Amino acid sequence: MGDKRIIGIVLLVVGAVLLYFGYQATGAPLEHATKTLTGDYSNRTMVYLICGAAAAIGGVALLVVGSRR
After folding, report:
1. How many CB atoms lie within 10 A of CB 59?
2. pLDDT per residue over 7-65, tens digit each?
3. What is the DSSP letter of 40?
4. How far apart are CA 44 and CA 40, in angstroms?
5. Residue 1 carries which DSSP code?
6. CA dihedral defined by 53, 60, 4, 21, rounded to 10 degrees?
7. pTM to 2 decimals?
8. What sections of 1-69 are H helices per DSSP?
């Protein structure tokens, strides 16, 4: 197994974990209050969601590119 595939798998798993925590944070009562008052999620929740999506996309990209070689 190549280095790119291993890094891709790790990024995919880390991205999935971050997305899970971000999704769980959106359901918290304090998060609902913040969204009601400001119209947006808190910065911490947004960081989880954005970084999780970026890591998952990067992991999938490395898996696809790594399998071509």
Report:
1. 21
2. 999 999 999 999 999 999 888 888 888 888 888 888 888 999 999 999 999 999 999 98
3. S
4. 11
5. -
6. 30
7. 0.83
8. 3-26, 29-38, 43-68
d(CA 13, CA 27): 22
Q: How big is the chain, counted in residues?
A: 69
Estimate to the nearest angstrom the gap between the alpha carbon of 66 and the chain centroid. Answer: 21
Both ends of the chain: CA-CA distance in Å?
11
- The CA distance from 13 to 65, in Å, is 17
Burial 20-50 (b: 16+ CB within 10 A, else e): eebeebeeeeebeebeeeeeebbeebeebbe
For residue 39, the 8-state DSSP code is S
In tens, the pLDDT along 11-25 reads 999 999 999 999 998
